[in-house]
From TrEMBL, chains A, B:
This is LacI family transcriptional regulator. InterPro entries: HTH_LacI (IPR000843), LacI/GalR-like_sensor (IPR046335), Lambda_DNA-bd_dom_sf (IPR010982), Peripla_BP_I (IPR028082). Keywords: DNA-binding, Transcription, Transcription regulation. SMART domains: HTH_LACI. Gene3D superfamilies: 3.40.50.2300, lambda repressor-like DNA-binding domains. It comes from Mucilaginibacter aquariorum. It comes from the Bacteria. Residues 6-60 form the HTH lacI-type domain.
Amino acid sequence: MNFKAITITDIAKALNISASTVSKALSDSYEISAKTKQIVLTYAREHNYRPNPNAISLKFGSSLSIGIVIPSIQNQFFAQIIDGIESVAHDEGFTVIIAQTHESYDMEVKSIQQLTHRAIDGLLISQSSETFDVSHLENLRSKGLPMVFFDRVSDQIDTHKVVTDNFQGALNATQHLFDNNYSRIAHITGPEGLSITTDRLNGYRQAHAQNKTQVTADYIKHCSYTNNNVAEIERAVHELLQLPDRPDAIFATSDTITSTVLLLLNKLGIKIPGQMAVIGFTNSSFAAVLAPPLTSVFQPGFLMGQKAARLLLSLVKSKKAVTEFETVVLPMQLIVRESSSVSIQV
Amino acid sequence: MNFKAITITDIAKALNISASTVSKALSDSYEISAKTKQIVLTYAREHNYRPNPNAISLKFGSSLSIGIVIPSIQNQFFAQIIDGIESVAHDEGFTVIIAQTHESYDMEVKSIQQLTHRAIDGLLISQSSETFDVSHLENLRSKGLPMVFFDRVSDQIDTHKVVTDNFQGALNATQHLFDNNYSRIAHITGPEGLSITTDRLNGYRQAHAQNKTQVTADYIKHCSYTNNNVAEIERAVHELLQLPDRPDAIFATSDTITSTVLLLLNKLGIKIPGQMAVIGFTNSSFAAVLAPPLTSVFQPGFLMGQKAARLLLSLVKSKKAVTEFETVVLPMQLIVRESSSVSIQV
DNA sequence: TTGAAAGCGATACCAC
DNA sequence: GTGGTATCGCTTTCAA
């Protein structure tokens, strides 16, 4: 089976004129008579002509498309970012091509090769948690590929970046727990090495400093963000629960970590927030109807996507090389619900 | 700024040989000497050569890529389907291009035009809820574009289809409510016209027939699946609650509808399942930790994506026109939790 | 064993 | 006003 769309040559043959005339007529060139334009445009519309983007890309080395590299589409936060990117890109006539890394460095390298050879005009990327060596990206950037980082950024590459205020978000969440009389606060977060992990950990630490409380190393657990991380999370929770000085609150990141933590606590019959307060990072609409309603840090995904796309398109359209880059920091929102209500234990 | 990847001509020039020799060497042609191959391959690897897909697509009218058209990436069910599709497509060397319709007919038409002119080899589609006229699809199919429908299918187009057993899923969910002593069962579902809406409604009706219970028209509410449907859902719930013969159970579809229903019931202080049982259609990992844990119909998204992709690739690879099509029906799973526990009211 | 040339679709420079 | 031709990167005859 083979499918072929209508081309300029098809139109030219059908109307018994040359391909160049058709091309010019379609682009409304002043060289072409009104009558010819009329005929060509009518025929083109009737036969649903659309230029072949592959030919255009080949011809101009530009494709009016941008690549997006994210860890996983299943994460609602990233899905919202994509929607934000698309809303801007489509307005400017750009198509978007999405590639997932599933938290694998190899997949990231492969996806990016795929995308760049598709002649994308720019790249939006949130790194995989396995990515430490960024030479594959630095390589492209130095060759002039416009690139913008979002959410998970690298400090080794100088370009525009858009992040949420992970430090402040974690600080606020942790401080909120202190304010509500919790003092033994555990933090279950993503793998070390990620910018978001570091920033959140720093916020968590800062809150402890503010409250003149020592950070307990055993209270900090790193889990991977891959699909099969449930066992890891379960182990982390069990270890926390078995500590002699058991935490009275858990501050968790990501949807999977948060929902798994809640499931375990419920299963063990641990009352939330009575015996254990919980705060999560989540954009899920279900947060408000969890048992109990979950205090959560909400990240403006759609907005982040829009900002990142605008910055990328400004790079793509810039005639001269850009050397001054900015890092946009978007505020997070702490939405307080019952899961972190004032502790009555102390 | 302009970014260019290395081409066959670049390699040819650098090595002082012809482009055709390079091309053949890269494809390991028997015409080329081992030594030349060695030199070319080494150089190509070192300089990270990858063929330009636009050139390939233009040359062969095939792109080793397939298009996916879905309503929204934010729906976790569709995100899972995409992962399923990718897992199959990547294994076979195909790239995937995703387009969202956001439930708009115009966006659907536009996206599909975009995709087909990118020389995709096949199309996987789940229709928008606004799509009644399918001539844009029939057009492509008749011209030979391999096409597979999934989830939301059209009965006006003859091709492979993959669906979940919406009839059985709705039947089981409704029957489960009857079994647990509920008899005034409301159904809040998607817009009329969608295959999934009809099938679920039929399952709901069948359950009523089995239990010799009349279906009450006022108990059936249709809401759109767009992003801004909260007001609609709120109105539907309020109307249900104000009925003289108020329902004692709600069977809802989709994540937004389900979470909004739960939020409203909680806000109004209506006990679940004491005063109102709830069953939802959701794949969210949060279902188990909702207040109360939600009985839900789980749809095998990943599997659906895999099946659909395999069927599409079989069409793409088939040398002769395929005229016998199949409709794969995947079973759903009713996961029983507290939100539909046995009623003690009756 | 290697290379020159045609062609995929669209555009732009030049002729006419 | 219109049409021929080169070009983008790649593959595939065909010729050397």
